What does this fold into?
Amino acid sequence: MASSGAEFVVIANRLPVDRDVLADGTVAWRKSPGGLVTALEPVMKSQGGAWIGWHGAPDETLEPFDDDGLHLVPVPLSSQEVEEYYEGFSNATLWPLYHDVVAPPAFRREWWDSYVAVNRRFAERAAEEAAQGAVVWVQDYQLQLVPTMLRELRPDLRIGFFLHIPFPPTELFQQLPWRRQILEGLLGADLVGFQLPGAAQNFVRLVRQRVGHKTHRDMVYLPDGRGVLAKAYPISIDAQGFEDLARSERVTRRAAEIRASLGNPRKVLLGIDRLDYTKGLRQRIRAFGELVRDGSVDLDDAVFVQVATPSRERVDQYRILRDDIDRLVGRINGDVGKIGQQPVQYLHASYPREEMAALYRAADVMVVTPLRDGMNLVAKEYVACRYDDQGALVLSEFAGAAAELKQAYLVNPYDINGTKAALLQAMEAGERENGKRMKAMRKHVMEHDIERWARTFLQELSEVGSHDKNPRPASVS
Ligand code: F6P
It folds into this structure.
């Protein structure tokens, strides 16, 4: 057990930095643009925190290093582990299973073995880094076994877990051959956080049914006297950071340039997603194509810009999706486009935050229509960037964000006609109507930012460990 060490430890599949190899061959680490590191950086810096994660390359062991005040601890993965733990169990078993089975999950025993082995490695690394009594925050579906593995090694720690993706309904979760081990893995935490209250309820119900522990509302009571709280903490973004960026002169100029290069159409519609089958890209593009084809939308009037960020490209379902989207966009542009005028501008690329902010400002209608999504931060980023209270958000009911952004044009993404109607409604609504909706959504997003999310979670984690706060009611025997 470590006698000194970090008072605050984050464990995530990835480190919050990307490696750049400079022209002279030297290596530099660049902070990745995620909101999580932005939120946790001040806590990490003030408490001498450590971040444990994979650095993104296989078959390479790196020593811990400090970068811009953060202590980073790389966890190595072999090529086989990348294939089995990351691409396999995390992204071809858990990912589709947890997203409503929108693609069939594959259940392979060797992937599970690798998931167990890699989770153990993360837990061991954390056990070495954490100071006596430290707070450890485990992130996401790739590491669900870590809380219990870590508690066995270091019972002195206070352990939190947050699931960034949906937690499935009990009927779907039960398909998992290792369902009990996953539930028991999570129960090593003092606090298990989810995006939505329904997810926390699914978890508590499963624990009662499958593991047999007593539960009461959001508490699970373990036989050893420990209590585990399961609750929703909807994640957010660095809202002020996005607004400041959107207000900057460079972004303002770039937004105008983008509109001009699209031919200054009356309406610019925008989608920005990781190229993932959960994002509803097929349905969304088809809906817009039909609007152009049936004449509801005039080609001289509107353009749909779809940015799809490359993701998990070695996983079969992602390869299939890429080909499908290429074909679909090609067919629509071929069928209804004219010389110099393509209804769908499709970009398979990732862009820095600044370009994203310019795109958000250039877009009259933001289209976020996943088939299932834990939260969807793009929806919140769009809202944060619209300091002018303009723009319209078309949002899937099945994104976690829909629980908060109630003034969006909400759609069932499986309903193509409904999606078409919502797109038209958003395009045709007047400034007053959109202004009213955007103002309300902005108020919510600006107040509920990522800093508040992290503060609330960590505050409740510090309280839940003291069990007298959550005594077992007499009625729960
Ligand atoms: O939403 C889940 C998530 O794992 C995020 O944490 C991450 O930014 C994104 O998906 C991309 O995932 P990957 O690490 O597989 O590229």
